Amino acid sequence: MAQRQLNWSATPWDDSELLECAMVIPEDANTATFGLRAPSGAWFDYIPGQFITLELPVPGGTVQRTYTISSSPSRPVSISVTVRAQKNSVGGRWMLDHLKPGMKIKAYGPSGIFSSHKHPAKKQLFISAGSGITPMMSMTTWAWDSSEMPDIVFVHAAKRPSEIIFRERLEQLANRVPGIQLRFTVEESDAFRSWHGYRGRLSQIMLGLMAPDYLEREVFCCGPEPFMQGVRDMLNALGFDMAHYHQESFGAPVRTEADQPLIHDVKPADSVMVKVNFAKSGKIADCRETESILSVAKRSGLNIPSGCNFGLCGTCKIKKTEGDVHMVHNGGISDEEIADGFILACCSKPMGRVVLEV
Ligand code: FES
Question: Which of 12, 262, 275, 307 has the fewest CB atoms in 10 Å of its CB?
Answer without folding.
Answer: 262
